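Morning run. Coffee first, then this:
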Amino acid sequence: VEADGEDTDVSPGETGAVARFTVTNTGNATQDFDLSVVDLVGGTVFNVDSIDADALTIVVDSNGNGVYDEGVDDAVADPTFIDELSATSGSNSISVFVLATIPSDADPGDAANIRLTATAHQAGVSDALGAIEAESGVNVDAGLQIVFSNSTGSDDDSYLVNAATLDVVKASQVLNDPLGNSAPAALAIPGAIVEYTITITNTGDAAATELVMTDDIQSDLTLETGNYTGEDVEIVEGSSAAVTCTADSGDSDGDGCGLTGNTLTVSIPTAVDADGIAVQTTAPDDVAVIKFQVSIN
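And here it is:
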């Protein structure tokens, strides 16, 4: 069965998009299960199918944590079958992930529907897929009869294309000048201090991840340092508290801010997603505000 009860949100051109299923052994004996996945053509799962998912890859949850761990779950020799799945309640289910590549020309609202199928096989040999299970077909006075009403199980999921849409506004204010004037009366003359505010708004339907702002500072300006609690740049993402960072050469201290020549680079601070994985993200309708100051040469 599809594990999350909703579509899997993806972005155009995304690779390794993860859809999650659960396979449960509802029989009364340990079984192997062969796995297969197909891209569905047409129809509706959570959404109407309108595009094709490519490079479909099956990965079995090797450490049982219910989360796809790249380099761990896909490191097993053959990820296309479930080995020795118990029939004992509490240990008879396992997560299976389907990875896909989404077309780069997909539009928001497009959906790719897929189907994962599990087929019961005989167990007994570790790390090897047993023979396909079949009904005995003949009654005998003594002996175990293999009887089933359905030799396969399957369920469907939708990869739904969402996209982040970023709106960027840059504004400036002269804070003070060498004549002793302060904002809003301060003049943009040599020696004046100017604060730039860059506001990034995600107006799309998906989170913007690994969001990085770059700004080329004019040659007649010099970046001022230490004006935000001792550091050079202030960042406020969504409802989070303000954080600051140092615009050092090449971001040698790894705090997300760097200055290379006249180019200032600022990464939006790291957040933690629902699976406990650290990501840089600006959710739909979120606003990230970046401030820094310069002096006029």
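The longest strand covers residues 111-122. Good start to the day.
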